[in-house]
Amino acid sequence: MPDMIKMAFLFIFCSGFLISPILGQNKTGPMTDAATIDWLTFEQLTDSLDKNPKMVMINFHTDWCTYCRKMHREVFTNPEVIQTINESYYAVSFDAETRDSVYFDGQWFINKEATNRRRGFHELAQLLGNRNGRITVPTTLFLNPDFTIRHRSFEYLSSRKLLDLLNP
Fold this sequence. Notes:
CATH architecture of the largest domain: 3-Layer(aba) Sandwich
Distance between the termini: 72 Å
CATH class of the largest domain: Alpha Beta
CATH superfamily of the largest domain: Glutaredoxin
Number of helices: 6
Largest sheet: 5 strands, mixed
Strand content: 15-25%
Number of strands: 11
Order of helices and strands: HEEEHEHHEEEHEEEEH
Helix content: 25-40%
Number of domains: 2
Strand order of the largest sheet: 3-5-4-10-11
Radius of gyration: 20 Å
Structural class: alpha+beta
């Protein structure tokens, strides 16, 4: 019987270590208090623009793109970038290869190119992030409140360069 008590204690003790990081998570990850960009989905963007028109920044990325990951890790965590985006923009971060169906601006968009062997690019990425018939990532779009394109960037943006584009 003492072995059962020891095992129960060990289980409870170990569970505390496994559960505490999960419970302590917020938008920035385990147990941090840092500010983050208030990323929206396209569905949330439609509602937000209807209620309170504001400029929009859309970042198209993929899992395999090194510069996309670098922007999310280094640029989108910069406090000045976070503050500027959250105060003046609605921000959308979108995986250009997602297989999710997205309802935006009154219609459904899907990834028609996705197969079992290939991820393909989503229709929204093709529609908004296309340059000369091709999609390159990272692609960052800057839109006016009426959703007209103000600027499109098809490259890695440093914090300084992004801030310059955010503050025209």
